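Input record, target 12 of the design panel.
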């Protein structure tokens, strides 16, 4: 007989998504409602986080904000760093305050950087440090990803978590493309001297999503994590190998999302309208590609898909170097878009590696005589912790990309080629790591995420 969860003081108690009767009776509707609102909150969070990738394109002497390229790259790197650093505390906050409560807070607080951006971005003569502070505050939008993913994990049974987390992450990532499309719309309708309109669009959306979350989302008592899991994960070598790979995939996605418009302006002299007109396409396709990367990893293995993905990113980056050298705008756009798509695929396949790697090690432990229940319980605990850590470290890669572009465009050459050469070297390093660490034959290495799900459900 299905056990219906009870509501007490805004909390669902007795929630168990693995109870198939309860899931089919009412549980799937509760989970879907929370997923939809989680996606909306994360989507708005990503938009506010990456809003400065659009606002900097408007900054010009015409509106009294004539910052040089180096200052603009520092400005877009600032929210990236803050968002990355907030991911770990945000993932823990859900376990303490509840998913609904934290989503309402995390969404509502986005009003602060958005209001400040709308007010100051059209005030001539505003100092750079003011924008750096506002950009840092916008970093709270980057933390939403971690809290949202942690919360949704508790709502779905293991057999549906891959799909649910893919939808949640992809819907959030689309916020990068959405804010750029809004920037394009503002430029098309009002010209390139009204950047405050971009921020103003989000003010009612933030209020609406916060109110809907307060009204229709749930806290669940099942959102609990072992307080020592993240600490234990930091001592595990696979945490750092996978984080290194995620720097290459998600770091590229978010870093290029922030920098693409500025690169077009500095590399080809693109106008704000031209820059925004092209920048939305890469993040859009990269976001859509993320669930596909997870699906391909299910079919062929996360390490194998990620290997070929990095090979493609290396080829695409080499094409960007050639395009910059021959001054081919069309080739540059095509190459950048391809790298965006591959970074999205890699986000999905790299995340899929995490449960497979720990399940493989658990399988090897069981073969060596360890208790299966303990081995797979530890694998599940560490997998959750590594997802949070890799997400935070990966986001820092986005800041590194913007800092690399800053150094490249301010070294006197006026070209992004040195930065692209550095990115190419990093992708080749990732290829070597995957080949040496994850594609060699070791006991238990053939365990899949499906095996992991099966075993963790059993224990």
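The sequence produced for target 12 reads:
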């Amino acid at each position: 007989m299905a056990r219906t969860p009870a509501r007490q003081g805004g909390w669902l108690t007795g929630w168990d998504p693995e109870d198939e009767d309860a899931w089919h009776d009412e549980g799937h509707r509760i989970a879907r409602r929370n997923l939809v609102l989680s996606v909306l909150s994360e989507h708005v969070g990503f938009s506010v986080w990456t809003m400065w990738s659009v606002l900097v394109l408007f900054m010009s002497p015409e509106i009294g904000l004539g910052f040089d390229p180096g200052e603009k790259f520092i400005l877009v790197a600032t929210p990236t760093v803050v968002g990355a650093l907030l991911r770990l505390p945000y993932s823990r906050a859900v376990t303490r305050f509840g998913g609904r409560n934290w989503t309402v807070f995390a969404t509502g607080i986005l009003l602060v950087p958005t209001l400040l951006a709308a007010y100051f971005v059209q005030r001539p003569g505003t100092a750079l440090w003011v924008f750096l502070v506002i950009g840092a505050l916008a970093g709270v939008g980057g933390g939403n990803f971690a809290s949202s993913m942690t919360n949704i994990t508790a709502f779905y049974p293991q057999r549906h978590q891959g799909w649910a987390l893919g939808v949640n992450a992809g819907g959030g990532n689309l916020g990068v493309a959405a804010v750029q499309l809004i920037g394009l719309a503002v430029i098309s309708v009002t010209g390139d001297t009204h950047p405050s309109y971009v921020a103003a669009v989000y003010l009612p959306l933030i209020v609406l999503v916060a109110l809907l979350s307060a009204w229709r989302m749930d806290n669940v008592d099942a959102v609990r994590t072992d307080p020592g899991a993240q600490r234990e994960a930091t001592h595990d070598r696979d945490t750092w190998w996978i984080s290194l790979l995620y720097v290459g995939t998600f770091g590229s996605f978010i870093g290029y999302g922030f920098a693409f418009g500025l690169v077009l302006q500095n590399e080809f002299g693109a106008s704000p309208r031209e820059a925004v007109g092209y920048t939305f396409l890469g993040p859009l396709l990269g976001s859509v590609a993320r669930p596909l990367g997870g699906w391909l990893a299910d079919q062929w293995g996360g390490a194998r898909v990620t290997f070929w993905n990095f090979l493609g990113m290396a080829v695409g980056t080499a094409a960007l170097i050639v395009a910059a050298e021959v001054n081919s705008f069309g080739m540059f756009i095509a190459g950048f878009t391809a790298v965006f798509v591959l970074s999205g695929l890699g986000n999905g396949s790299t995340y899929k590696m995490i449960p497979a790697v720990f399940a493989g090690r658990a399988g090897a432990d069981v073969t060596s005589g360890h208790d299966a229940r303990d081995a797979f319980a530890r694998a599940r605990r560490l997998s959750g912790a590594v997802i949070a850590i890799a997400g935070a470290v990966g986001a820092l890669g986005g800041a590194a990309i913007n800092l690399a572009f800053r150094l490249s465009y301010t070294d006197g050459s006026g070209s992004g080629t040195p930065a692209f050469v550095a990115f190419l070297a990093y992708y080749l390093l990732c290829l070597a790591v995957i080949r040496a660490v994850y594609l060699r034959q070791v006991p238990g290495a053939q365990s899949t995420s499906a095996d992991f799900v099966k075993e963790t459900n059993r224990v």
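The first strand starts at residue 6 and ends at 8.
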